[in-house]
């Protein structure tokens, strides 16, 4: 009887990342009967987010905005307004989204990004929890294989050099980098922790290079899943296959912590790659099953492709179904971590 009651609770799924891939998965995962927590990168320094980050010396809002929208249950028109991006001759407005401005305003009103996001989750009827990875903006640093360095998430890929490793610091460097409140407890109390999909060096690693998040990923009893990217990215992952992506994660954290690799084996049509309008993406990430098995205990491989006129995406519904099944089967009696 006790086991039956245990099995009926919602599996706790924590998703960590940023960029455009994460909202695709969250939007589909929202429809599952799961307790979802999204932990979102705070190292972005480009575009509207970068301008607002510098203006307010605050956490960049863009990735948080996209996650809030993906998990929101407000009417479509309200989501469209939240995501609307100004195209204006006024330099003060051009390129900014309404959502970015709202998040920045609420952070200014309440004095910190954590309180602002928690209030917005209520106002936007978010199904789940959204936490910034840290409560202050972080600088992302890269060291390339040739020994040179670069600081700035938006600048790192533009060097066109092979990245050896990345790290993060607070903008005010004398302070240690710390995870936002409730982030560590969410990881420790999860049934499943999901990394990605997203840019390996600039969307995923900025989160797990926060020391207490990296430690939590090693220590948690939850299964850790890595969703491999579909395409290689200019200035980040040229020539890296799916096993290489996992090796990079393990190298940065200092040990093997990924339990499951979810990887696409569907073939992106060659003529589609040739007409790919987003020049950031290069070629399809190659599948190395043998290499993955040397890094992780379990590999989930399938055709996870969704091809649109604009780009190549993961099929959110198929990925969410695999994540939910894995989380449900991984449920455990949780010792509450405070």
Automatic annotation (TrEMBL):
Keywords: Cytoplasm. One of its GO terms (molecular function) is LPPG:FO 2-phospho-L-lactate transferase activity. InterPro entries: CofD, CofD-like_dom_sf, Gluconeogen_factor. One of its GO terms (biological process) is regulation of cell shape. Its main location: cytoplasm. One of its GO terms (cellular component) is cytoplasm. It is found in: Cytoplasm. Required for morphogenesis under gluconeogenic growth conditions. NCBIfam families: CofD_related. This is Putative gluconeogenesis factor.
């Amino acid at each position: 009887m006790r086991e039956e009651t245990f099995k009926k609770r919602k599996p706790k799924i924590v998703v960590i990342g940023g960029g455009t891939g994460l909202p695709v998965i969250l939007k589909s995962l929202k429809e599952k009967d799961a307790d979802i927590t999204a932990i979102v990168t705070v190292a972005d320094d480009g575009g509207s987010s970068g301008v607002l980050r510098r203006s307010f010396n605050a956490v960049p809002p863009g990735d948080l905005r996209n996650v809030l929208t993906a998990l929101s249950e407000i009417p479509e028109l309200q989501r469209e307004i939240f995501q609307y991006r100004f195209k204006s001759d006024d330099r003060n407005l051009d390129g900014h989204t309404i959502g970015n401005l709202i998040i920045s305003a609420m952070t200014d009103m309440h004095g910190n990004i954590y309180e602002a996001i928690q209030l917005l989750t209520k106002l936007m009827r978010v199904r789940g929890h959204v936490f910034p990875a840290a409560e202050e903006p972080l600088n992302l640093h890269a060291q390339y294989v040739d020994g040179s360095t670069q600081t700035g998430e938006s600048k790192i890929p533009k060097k066109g050099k092979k990245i050896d490793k990345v790290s993060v610091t607070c903008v005010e460097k004398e302070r240690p980098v710390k995870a936002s409140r409730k982030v560590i407890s969410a990881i420790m109390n999860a049934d499943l922790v999901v990394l990605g999909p997203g840019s390996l060096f600039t969307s995923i690693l900025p989160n797990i290079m926060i020391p207490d998040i990296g430690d939590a990923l090693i220590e948690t009893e939850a299964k850790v899943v890595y969703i491999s990217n579909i395409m290689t990215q200019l200035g980040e992952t040229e020539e890296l296959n799916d096993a290489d992506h996992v090796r990079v994660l393990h190298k940065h954290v200092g040990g093997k912590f990924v339990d499951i690799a979810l990887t696409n084996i569907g073939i992106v049509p060659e003529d589609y790659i040739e007409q790919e309008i987003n020049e950031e993406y290069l070629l399809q990430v190659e599948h190395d099953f043998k290499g993955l098995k040397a890094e992780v205990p379990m590999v989930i491989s399938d055709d996870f492709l969704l091809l649109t006129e604009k780009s190549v995406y993961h099929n959110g519904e198929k990925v969410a179904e695999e994540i939910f099944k894995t989380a449900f089967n991984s449920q455990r009696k949780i010792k509450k971590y405070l």
